[in-house]
Write a structure and sequence with these properties.
The structure holds two protein chains of two kinds.
Chain A: H1 25-38, H2 44-54, H3 60-72, H4 77-120, H5 124-154, H6 159-173, H7 178-196
Helix pairs in contact in A: 1-2, 1-4, 2-5, 3-4, 6-7
Chain B: H1 4-21, H2 30-40, H3 46-58, H4 65-104, H5 109-137, H6 141-156, H7 161-173
Helix pairs in contact in B: 1-4, 3-4
The chains are: A mainly alpha, B mainly alpha.
Chain lengths: 197, 177
């Protein structure tokens, strides 16, 4: 494992075919502000929609890789994602701008809502609306995961899909404890990827 | 409200600590946040915590906004800011350096293997969380219908999900769900 091939410069991610457009600071800010303001029921679905489908800043594979890395880092994962993507395209300032775009607008919004709540107490109407939105949000996450899984299943190697399905079954259906599942599945998955290499 | 500086300090260290446990998303840390805020510090009652969690879900934005709202409840605007910064600051710095290291070795075989190994596990986990969220949300057949319809529509038609959410909110409001 000691081939230290001179890697391409970090600031220019290797793109498939056409070079992806490199967002400016204001484009970064706007994209992340939109992601956060659209993001009912979590921001994963919206960040994939924005990054991959609308702006085409990342290929589906690049998105999956960055998301996987962020999920295994401590901290909120899309928040990590914004920092990593922002700083990849526009340096440390880009990371900061993406972060402020993601956190700033919803913070203002939620403080206003929190203040209203403190005044008016409980919110049966809002809670009923939330039941509907939560059901829809669950569906949106499902279709997002399905789209994210496409590159994995198109790939000819069988290992990836098997690992993904096993992890899903163990946590989502059998509801086994996460640390134990990860302790079994992660080493196998890493080993498979290393062999495939 | 006792000593504000002390409260802000507690918010800062507690959420900085919690961020380290939030692997796979801010929601992983919610049970521990609940225990500390309700049982240890008595910042709020149990129903208040549920309301705050519900409000954070109702408001668009990353899941971490629940932390902002808890900070606001405990110590006003300063609390909101301190709690959010503590929850995101240290881990963002870590993400920044890890991301840079990762990009510097782009194409190196350990890096390709690491990414190739993490991606399928992450996809399985995210799919599982979708099912868990759906199971919690879908008590009625109408709710199941909304989940399935949303999944199919956002998969096959290029429709902005916001419209679907608006319809779902109206269905919820009208009491059909």
């Amino acid at each position: 494992m000691n081939d230290v091939t001179p890697a391409p410069r970090a600031t220019e991610p290797v793109a498939a075919a056409a070079a992806p457009p490199r967002p400016s600071l204001s484009e970064l800010f706007i994209a992340y502000a939109l992601i956060s303001l659209y993001g009912f029921g979590g921001v994963l679905a919206w960040s994939r929609r924005m990054m991959v489908e609308e702006r085409r800043w990342l290929t589906p594979e690049q998105f999956n890789e960055a998301y996987a890395l962020c999920s295994f880092l401590p901290g909120p994962n899309i928040v990590n994602f914004s920092v990593i993507f922002g700083s990849r395209v526009r340096g440390p300032l880009g990371g900061l701008v993406a972060l402020v775009g993601l956190l700033g607008p919803p913070m203002v919004l939620i403080v206003i809502i929190g203040a209203l709540y403190a005044h008016y107490g409980d919110l049966p109407a809002l809670r009923r609306a939330l039941i509907g939105v939560t059901a829809a949000a669950a569906g949106l996450i499902m279709s997002t995961v399905a789209k994210m899984a496409l590159p994995l299943f198109r790939n000819r190697a069988v290992g990836g899909p098997v690992i993904a399905l096993a992890t899903f079954g163990a946590i989502g259906i059998a509801q086994w404890p996460l640390p134990i599942v990860l302790a079994v599945v992660l080493p196998i998955s890493l080993a498979l990827a290393l062999v495939r290499r | 409200m006792k000593d504000l500086g002390g409260t802000l300090g507690t918010l800062a260290w507690f959420f900085a600590l919690m961020s380290l446990f939030a692997i796979g998303g801010a929601n992983s840390a919610v049970p521990e946040i609940h225990r500390f805020a309700v049982d240890v510090q008595h910042w709020m009652t149990d129903p208040q915590f549920s309301d705050i969690f519900g409000l954070a879900q109702l408001t668009p934005g990353p899941n971490v906004m629940v932390v902002t709202l808890i900070g606001y409840h405990v110590a006003g605007l300063a609390g909101a800011l301190v709690a959010t910064l503590a929850m995101c600051g240290p881990t963002c710095l870590l993400a920044f350096y890890v991301g840079r290291t990762f990009d510097r070795f782009r194409g190196a075989s350990w890096q390709v293997a690491l990414a190739g190994g993490l991606v399928p596990v992450t996809l399985g986990l995210t799919a599982a969380s979708a099912v868990i969220v759906a199971r919690a949300a879908d008590d009625t057949w109408v709710a199941v219908g909304i989940t399935v319809a949303t999944a199919l529509m956002t998969c096959w038609i290029r429709v902005n999900p916001l419209w679907i959410f608006a319809v779902a909110a109206l269905l919820g409001l009208s009491g059909v769900v």
